[in-house]
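Risk register update: the risk of archive-format incompatibility is retired. Evidence:
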Amino acid sequence: MSAPIVELDAVTAAYRERRVLLDVSLRIEAGELVALIGPNGAGKSTLLAVATGLLRPLAGVVRLDGEPVETLERLEVARRMAVVPGAANLPFATRVEEVVALGRLPHEDPFRGARPADRAAIAGAIERVGIGHLLGRDARELSLGERQLVLIAMAVAQAAPILILDEPTVHLDLRHQVEAMELLVDLNERDGTTIIAVLHDLTLAAHFFPRLVLLDGGRVVADGPPPEVLRPDRIREVFGVDPGFVRLPQPTA
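Archived output:
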């Protein structure tokens, strides 16, 4: 039996003195499509930081393909895992196509620079995400939603087997939210990319992700298909809202 592509084994993590994840264990197999959900402060973004090796846990182990992430060089992690942050500030003028090209850095020859395969991957990512109309513009001058799409294109260009996204739809209007979700499903189904995304919109999560991991108070309180995880009693208990506000997809006959 092969090792899960991402595994957290009894992980506890903290920022300064405040513990944010508490004894979390999670296995994600290659090719899965997983959404992390939960109220603010539940530990979702911290889980991503630990999974990517950006935050060292106080206890427990994080593994990529069976290898402890802390033993891997950052370049090797970048070849295995592309990350789309919830927000990114660009410190200097950068054209959209230059931002997307950053996704190829883990693959470029340090002496020869971009190769034809890199340029093809950049062009393919721009087309796939549908941001060709933004080419030539300074990415700092884009709307937050447009900038988010550029960052997604950068991650697509990276062509890593794992794609991690922290609130990828937060700045997008409804049409672009749906298109972004459809793109993630396409990357998963057509390319076999393992997708792990933090989402606040429970309806989007339930509609597009077959597996939901619900966190609350730094712990995993439910893990499974949307109807099981988003039971009315659990929505009321964890989110403190009327379950009627969450629309789950209806089962097909």
